[in-house]
Specification:
Length: 318
């Protein structure tokens, strides 16, 4: 199974970079294509409020995090972030409105943290980060980062609140998307040459207590937890978002995404948004993913959409 992340070695990477006008080898950083000149980067970061929901998109190829209004779909960006960003992929927003950006192509690789309304990072995490692919934050403020290093190797790194020194490093995984639920259980997408699954780590544990999805998933690349505890898993191989029931983790529904399914996020406007990587499209699907794809796309200045986060964040269940 080949990865569809932009920093990963292999024929898929070469094809993606060629399509975007980039070049790369091994796990070297992506050389971003020039952004479209029609968009002026003078916009700051708007602060979410009641009735004002935003969707953040990590555009790896233009080294920018763009900020779109959740409504109306297809509107132009209302903000952007470039300071401290280099090949952004994973995004997360915590309950206080802080934005976390995982930048795999930055030297050194890092996760930057932006307070509400700010486009300048207040804290930068670098220790034990090699290819930071995804980021998640639990209710206590612990920051989890997944490293996807290639050849099915990688690690999970945990930073305590406000600290730049990791408290936990879990090696020997091929972790892609990560998420946390209301109990601070960590959900990790992991696959190798023989199996693909989502593994669940209880708080404080370095060993999973349960895994699910082995019969359904082939190439899971993104994950988010819904307000009732349902687990939304993007599978790039199928172009589907798989929705697993809370607690039982049985497959409840799967939703086909026309342009490819790489990373999902839920907005408080009740939309399920799905990024499609090198397709530079963000697809919106009706309430909680159980409706028909609305075919409302976010084009604007996007060159890619490898990471998504909704602001304000949807509080995860159960």
């Amino acid at each position: 199974m080949a990865s569809h992340r932009p920093l990963f070695a292999g024929s898929v990477l070469i094809a993606l970079l060629a399509a975007a006008g980039c070049s790369g080898a091994g796990t070297s950083a992506v050389t971003p294509a020039a952004p479209q000149a029609s968009f002026t980067r003078s916009h700051g970061r708007p602060i979410a409020a009641v009735g004002k929901n935003y969707v953040y998109v990590a555009d790896t190829y233009s080294n920018t995090v763009f900020i779109f209004p959740a409504r109306p779909a297809g509107a132009s960006p209302v903000g952007s972030i470039t300071s401290g960003v280099g090949g952004p992929q994973g995004l997360a927003i915590d309950k206080a409105g802080n934005l976390y950006v995982a930048s795999s192509a930055h030297v050194p690789p890092q996760v930057t943290i932006y307070p509400p309304g700010s486009t300048t990072p207040s804290l930068t995490l670098t220790q034990d980060l090699t290819v930071p692919d995804a980021v998640a934050v639990d209710s206590k403020g612990n920051v989890w980062v997944s490293n996807e290093e290639g050849s099915y190797q990688g690690s999970l790194v945990e930073f305590p609140p406000g600290s730049t020194t990791p408290s936990t490093v879990i090696n020997g995984l091929n972790p892609l998307g990560i998420a946390v639920d209301s109990r601070d259980y960590l959900y990790v997408e992991n696959y190798n040459t023989t199996a693909a699954m989502v593994s669940i780590y209880p708080p404080g544990s370095t060993k999973p207590s349960k895994s699910f999805g082995q019969k359904d998933l082939i190439e899971p690349t993104g994950i988010t937890i819904g307000p009732t505890g349902d687990v939304y898993v993007s599978d790039y191989y199928f172009n589907d978002v798989f929705i697993f029931k809370t607690k039982s983790y049985r497959l409840r529904k799967k939703v086909f995404v026309q342009e490819g399914s790489l990373i999902p996020t839920l907005s408080k406007s009740d939309g399920l948004y799905v990024g499609t990587g090198s397709q530079a499209v963000v697809s919106e699907i009706a309430r909680d993913g159980f409706g028909k794809e609305t075919n409302q796309w976010y084009f604007g200045p996007l060159l890619s959409s490898f990471g998504l986060a909704a602001d304000p964040a949807v509080a995860p269940g159960p």
